[in-house]
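Lab notebook page, bench 4
Experiment: in silico fold of construct C2
Operator: M.H.
Input chain length: 74 residues
Purpose: comparison with the prior construct
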Amino acid sequence: MLDRPQRKRAVNLSLDAALVEEAKALGVNLSAAAEAGLREAAREAWRRENAEAMAAWSRWVEENGLPLGEHRQF
């Protein structure tokens, strides 16, 4: 969901003024940079929130193998 292009929404942000000026001077697209940062922050939050479930699934696969693994052709 987070990787799909979505319609844009205007928002107000408060950012360090010196950082904004430096980024602008370097030609950084502030909207794209903010969007990329938010996307990564959301991914990291999802990973933290789901770490226990992912670890449990990995343990289950180690103990039981992949579901339908006997049907794999590779």
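Observations: The radius of gyration is 20 Å. The first helix runs from residue 17 to 25.
Next step: discuss at group meeting.
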